[in-house]
Amino acid sequence: MFVNLSKLHLKEECPLEDKGAPKLCMKALPGEGAERSCAFDGARVVLMPIADAAHIVHGPIACAGNSWDNRGARSSGPQLYRRGLTTDLHEMDVVYGGEKKLEKAIVEVAYTHQPKAIFVYASCVSALIGDDIDKACQEAQKEVSVPVIPVNAPGFMGDKNIGNRVSGEVLLQQVIGTAEPEEDHPFAINFIGEYNIAGDLWGILPSLDALGIKLLSSISGDGRFDDIRKAHRAKLNVLVCSKSLTNLVKKMEQKWGMPYIEGSFYGIHDTSETLRMIAQMLGDQSLIERTEKHIAEQEEKTRQIIDPYKKKLAGKRAVLFTGGVKTWSMVTTLKELGIEVLAGGTQNSTPEDFLRMKALMDPEAQIIEDTSAAGFLTLIAEKKPDLIVAGGKTKYLAHKTRTPFLDINHGRSLPYAGYRGMVTFAEAVHRTVFSPVWEKLRQSFPPGGEAR
Amino acid sequence: MSVDTTCCNNSCDNQAISEWIKSEEYKEKNFSREALTINPSKACQPLGAMLCALGIEGCLPFVHGSQGCAAYFRNNLSRHLREPVPTVSDSMTEDAAVFGGQANMIDGLKNAHALYHPAMMAVFTTCMAEVIGDDLKAFITNARNQGAIPEDFPIAFAHTPSFVGSHITGWDNMFKGLLQSLADPRHGKWTNGRLYLVPGFDAYPANLREYRRLVDAMGIPVTILPDASEPMDAPHTGEYELYPGGTPMAELADALNASGFVFMQKYSTQNSFKFVKNVQKINTEVVTMPIGIKNTDNFLMALTEMTGKAVPAELERERGRAVDAATDAHQYIHGRRFALFGDPDLLIGLVGFLLEMGGMPVHIVCTNGNAKFKKEMDALLASSPFGSEGKVYIGKDLWHLHSLLMTEPVDMLIGDSHGKYLAKDAGIPLARVGFPLTDRVNLHRSPIVGYQGAINLISLIANTFIEELDRTCSDERFELLR
């Protein structure tokens, strides 16, 4: 089934007139750049970390060929989700339609890989030539004993955000609530929108284990299909990346009466705050006390470890450009290391995220309005930050301007979430800012010229 | 009949399954796939077109189609090159899919021109624009007529549908587009006395520099077209330069007056080759990518043939050093069995190199290879006793290769970073050659072509074997001398 866009309330969610606010329902300006990915990518980002499912991209080689296994979402078990599965549509398929090929591909993947479920993604081409992937999935379902689930988010629908939301709808309508857990755990929660990039999730789990909180399902980092089916029996949804799945938690609340909170596990303050909220929401007095004790212990321990870094980093200034929860959570996290945010910006987040970021930043700090490469360069030349915190596409641009850069998006190889992640983050920032290479870049050659 | 896909226990990656995946029975099942591709070793046309466009000075690649594609291309090239890659997209969405992409194109050209001040743009398409049949030529003309871009602003264009061919096809189409759109017509018999060298899809800036060095040493005036060596590997000056070099526009304009063209790859330049040789009637040669000693010899001889210039003493001495290096290291490579995957031209070059070292290519997988390639590869394998076990698989993917490695083991895998999982599963080392190389640094900064490239490849392969031996051998076999 096609998720009707108007049902996703995108238009109503575009209330912000602020400069630099994310344009949820606005189209990207043609010719401005190529920073933003598409609805298909957004759908993929949400669903593909479900590790024991097969994910078939129904389209020409472009979509899967350029993207398979390109995100650092980790799995502690099955690695099936990393396989690049595609129908690789050719000219003849475009002319005659690709539905039959897709049906066959679904059966073939069932035979060769024995997945727990099969997700099928539409692409620009399959949608334009009128392939009915829902029908193909139904046909294939007759021959396959695991659920076959169509995901209709072809790239031309728009930005990544839209695809994220479509995925949420798909999970809600076809996965969540289709199985029951064996036991009713009093402290069962779900994470929504935590993708276990570089193993982020594993920095958070030790705290949950210590407190006796059960992670019933993770949507979707290190996720398992069967766990997600039972997600409706959790006592609480914790929305970790609000940009992508706000619609999902709201609808789960309507449907199953599950309360939700929005939190973040980046930085000491946000981690503690989120754990505190979880305990409060679960409402068990002894859990609340345990949580406070745990927070106090962990905070002290973590602050002790990062203190030497903080001493050295104090007073450094950063430019932050990212998406989702990191938009605002990174502002506090950097502050905890004594780093001030000079300018911040986002295009991949919700208006709420954006407003939070604004509230946390120094009133003097600049909101990045022009998010193109050109605008970014102007900003750096003007602000001369000590550090740029952004995603992979900006990395080498930053290097060329002699500015230390920290990758915060999916290209990174280090986990920054939870108390443990904060230590990793502090080490990484320190290593980045104080590398001797920046010095090398600033020396003139041949010697005697002006140092830059 | 229903396929029972339930697993024996909670994990699909359990022992029984992973054993089964290694079996002959599974291989048969795997090879009987008709509709499903698993882990393709190819990307799409516009990615190749983009790399091609980057090689012209001041050129901004312009993707006409969906915006996600362009973001993917930038990511892919950036991760391999560790450089910023400038590209814009005109971000076609639903309405463009219905009404056509002309409005996006005109706005896009206007904005890109105003924002990034390119000297020229290279417009190419994603599959979305191709399915709805957008007419690039008309759109560009209309953009000029509406004043979105200056009347005389140079734009090259190419149709690069991703449902045809692969990234090498796109490179080819864009190259031909550059010549057709921006090269001046020939002045009859007069030539500008320059040799034009066309690298084909090559993501090693060091290879392009090596070509230049070799041709310079021969004393031949040369233009590398397009030359993306600077954009792919720009020096650090403290300023970010959007357009850090490339083939000057004037040399592109003068291309059809060349004294000759030499194409360094065959399969990624098929259309362009025909255009230059048969349509433009220019003295044109195509050589096997000069990987290894013999292929480099043939390349230099082809240059001599075309220009009458002799191979200078310095290159002869260089060749001698490469032969010496091959002699010193032959025992590490001779008789070892290899599996390879990658682009067709790269594979022809590499297999030739392995054969001359006494290495035995066994499995050769080329997702984007055609029948012509298979024929050439079969002939190459048949030319040497070391090729007797070699089998070529065109249109197959890395999951087919997985089965081959499991059922007929080899000693080493040669291919890009995507091969690391296969190598790990098969318990063999991976020598990283090709595109993309995302998990090691600076490999693209050493040439794999020419005599120096032969030495580099010998070192890479032999040392990878020796590293493996050192890591795995028992104490009594752990030697200072290898």
UniProtKB/TrEMBL annotation, chain A:
Entry-linked Gene3D superfamilies: Nitrogenase MoFe cofactor biosynthesis protein NifE, C-terminal, Nitrogenase molybdenum iron protein domain
Pfam families named in the record: Oxidored_nitro (PF00148)
Any one Gene Ontology molecular-function term assigned to this protein's record: nitrogenase activity
PROSITE patterns: NITROGENASE_1_1 (PS00699)
This protein's pathway: Cofactor biosynthesis; Fe-Mo cofactor biosynthesis
Domain Nitrogenase/oxidoreductase component, chain residue ranges per copy: 38-433
Keyword Iron: no
One Gene Ontology term from the biological process aspect of the record: protein-containing complex assembly
UniProt keyword list: Nitrogen fixation
Superkingdom of this protein's organism: Bacteria
Family the entry assigns: Belongs to the NifD/NifK/NifE/NifN family.
Function description: This protein may play a role in the biosynthesis of the prosthetic group of nitrogenase (FeMo cofactor).
Protein's name in the database: Nitrogenase iron-molybdenum cofactor biosynthesis protein NifE
Lineage of source species: Bacteria, Bacillati, Bacillota, Clostridia, Eubacteriales
UniProtKB/TrEMBL annotation, chain B:
Ranges for domain Nitrogenase/oxidoreductase component: 44-465
Cofactors: [8Fe-7S] cluster
Name of a matching Pfam family: Oxidored_nitro
Gene Ontology cellular-component terms listed: molybdenum-iron nitrogenase complex
EC number: 1.18.6.1
Catalyzed reactions: N2 + 8 reduced [2Fe-2S]-[ferredoxin] + 16 ATP + 16 H2O = H2 + 8 oxidized [2Fe-2S]-[ferredoxin] + 2 NH4(+) + 16 ADP + 16 phosphate + 6 H(+)
InterPro entries in the record: ChlB/BchB/BchZ, Nase/OxRdtase_comp1, Nase_comp1_CS, Nase_Mo-Fe_CF_bsu
Gene Ontology MF annotations: ATP binding; iron-sulfur cluster binding; metal ion binding; nitrogenase activity
Keyword field: ATP-binding, Iron, Iron-sulfur, Metal-binding, Nitrogen fixation, Nucleotide-binding, Oxidoreductase
Cofactor binding description: Binds 1 [8Fe-7S] cluster per heterodimer.
NCBIfam families tied to this protein: nifK
Subunit structure: Tetramer of two alpha and two beta chains. Forms complex with the iron protein (nitrogenase component 2).
Function recorded in the entry: This molybdenum-iron protein is part of the nitrogenase complex that catalyzes the key enzymatic reactions in nitrogen fixation.
Sequence similarity: Belongs to the NifD/NifK/NifE/NifN family.
Name assigned to this protein: Nitrogenase molybdenum-iron protein beta chain
Organism, as annotated: Heliorestis convoluta
Encoding gene (name): nifK
